[in-house]
Amino acid sequence: MIAPMRVGHRPATARLRRIRKWAVSVGLGIVLGACVAAAVAASLVSQAPSWWRTTNPTDPATIRAGEEVENGVVNVIYEVRETPAAPWTVTLHAADANAWLNTRLGQWLANSDAEFEWPREVENLQVQFDDGLIQVGVQFNGGEREQILSATLRPEFRDDGSLWVAARSISVGRLPIPAGWIVERAGSIAEGVVPARVLEDPETARVLRALAGECPLDPDPVLELGDGRRVRVLRIAAERGRLLVQCRTEFEE
Fold this sequence. Notes:
This protein has helices spanning 13-40, 60-78, 94-103, 105-112, 179-190, 196-199, 202-211; strands at residues 2-3, 88-93, 122-130, 133-141, 146-153, 156-157, 163-164, 167-172, 175-177, 222-224, 229-239, 242-251. It is of the alpha+beta class. Strands 1-2-12-11-10 form a 5-stranded mixed sheet. Strands 3-4-5-8-9 form a 5-stranded antiparallel sheet. A two-stranded antiparallel sheet has the order 6-7. The radius of gyration is 18 Å and the shape is globular.
């Protein structure tokens, strides 16, 4: 069953706080990747990947789409189902995901960390879903030139239920760079560009290790709803511009 994404009702703030941690890990990885791009991009090509699109975060339609997809996803997660044990699916289109990333992600990160400031050099975030792969990219404006850093991820669930997202490849523009090289040197490359407290945050180290394939992104991908229920992510599939996330609602024992 494909769950509808656009719902008009605004979710409660408490619900957003419970889900916010899911966005923080992804957002942190994207922002850190943008800062890494600043240091390695100077001598590399600036041509955008073939899948790249541009999203205008000030467009009222984009702002509205970001709010609607956020509300829709939250409402689907909290929906009371007639057969709770049956798996259900959330479908997210790339265009909706990009609207949310460029209009709402910064606010979520700021709400999670009062000292967080969105890097002014980061101008555009993009994702694309196809052939089982998730493309994640960020556009960085260093003043003299604009540069795009992107990564190709394949989500994988292990037998123990853990979620892994090791980077299959990383590119600056259209020039591929070994993923391991970037991940291993991210800390030293980003020094002086990323605030020290971000580099020293254990969450930053964990995200980088996950991209290197050294640990899962989430060893137990479960979201506690706070009402005796929890949502377990069972499967993630990327196909034809859509991300399908299969979940199951469980009751705490």
